[in-house]
Amino acid sequence: MTTLAGIKTIKDLELENKRVFIRVDFNVPQDKKTRAITDDARIRAALPTIQYAMDKGAKVILASHLGRPKGKVDPIYSLEPCAARLAELLSCEVLLPDDCVGDAPKKLIGEMRGRQIVLLENVRFHPEEEKNDEGFARQLAELCDVYVNDAFGCSHRAHASVHALPKLMREKACGFLLEAEIAKLGKIITDPDKPYLAILGGAKVSDKIAVVENLLNLVDMLVIGGAMANTFLKAQGNDTKASLVEDDKLALARTIMEKARDMKVDLIVPVDVVVAPSTDATEGKVVDVGAIPDGNLALDIGPKTIAMIEGACKKAKSIFWNGPMGMFENKAFSAGTFAVAKAMASVRAFTVVGGGDSASAVRKAGPEIQMAFTHISTGGGASLELVEGRKLPGIEILRSGNA
Ligand code: ADP
Ligand code: MG
Question: Which long-range contacts (CB under 8 A, 24 or more apart) does 306-310 make?
Answer without folding.
Answer: 306/335, 306/336, 306/339, 306/340, 306/343, 308/223, 308/268, 308/271, 309/199, 309/223, 309/225, 309/268, 309/339, 309/340, 309/343, 310/339, 310/343
